[in-house]
Amino acid sequence: IRKPKTTVRIRTIGIDTIHTPDAVAEKVLGGSCTYFAAAASFFTQVRLVAAAGGDFHDDYRAVFAKFPNVCVEGLEIRPDSKTFAWGGKYFDNWNQRETLFTELGVLAEHPPKIPAAYQDSKYIFLANSHPTVQLELLRAFPKRVVSVLDTMNLWIDTAREELRAVMREIDGLIINDEEARMLTDIRNPITAGKKIIAEMGPMFVVIKKGEHGCILVHDEGVAMLPAYPVETVIDPTGAGDSFAGGMMGHLAASHSKDDGFD
Q1: Which of 11, 85, 124, 259 could form a disulfide bond with 147, CB atoms 3.0-4.6 angstroms apart?
Q2: Are 29 and 138 in contact (CB under 8 A)?
Q3: Average pLDDT of the chain to the nearest whole number
Q4: Where are the beta strands (DSSP E) in 130-260?
């Protein structure tokens, strides 16, 4: 495993209850923080910035110990609070998912503190959260070289101006094709990506299309990648966060600490 000096950071931890056509998993470790960290740690060192409640027991923490490149110094435990919890149900068509419940817990509170040792971080990934919180966290890393944002339809609907504010300060955006359409009112993902770059701030946009792969749009052109084919799907939860972790980990590992990003 390559261990460059560059690092990657993220935010949300969750406790998930997941129903699939074949099984049910109750109160398992989830959240973008978990999936992202696991994927990125194969490429680079990962620094977590996240908060969890008193219900975040040692078995959950032990999962991160399996990934030696993951630093959990920025994992803030709040004993009197609850960890973010989410329940979802998948159908025979894995692209269809129903949210059964969402309990914000610590996500409804103030954001976690960033350890002083993290402030020299250069590769920043802002996991899905309220855009105001994302902007506050982003500005805490003055030496950042590459910053990438994730968001969702909720914030596009309810906090669009705040989302536009943070988008003006980031380098890259990762969204799915539905979110790209919501942001731009354009159905074609390539055209939507070009509009985001031209009018909203990011240098590049990665648009996820589920089983159909993804599209990278930037000012020098367009690139497309297919999804890796699998015969048996067990649980697609965290697929997008794992994708983002692999991408950001590769970017961090491919650039020295003195490199810019072109």
Answers
A1: 124
A2: no
A3: 90
A4: 146-150, 172-176, 204-208, 214-218, 221-225
Region 163-186: what's the mean pLDDT? Answer: 96
DSSP assignment of 85-154 equals EEEEEE-SSTT-EEEEEEE-GGGGSPPPPPPGGGTT--EEEE-SS-HHHHHHHHTT-TT-SEEEEE--HH
Which pair of tokens denotes residue 232? 């048996």
Cα separation of 216 and 188, whole Å?
13
Structure tokens at 100: 């059964």
pLDDT score for 49: 93
What are the tokens at 94? Answer: 């894995």
- Which amino acid appears at position 25 of this protein? A
pTM of the model: 0.88
Nearest to 21 by CA among 209, 236, 223: 236
pLDDT in tens, 226-242: 998 888 888 989 999 99
Q: What is the pLDDT of residue 97?
A: 85
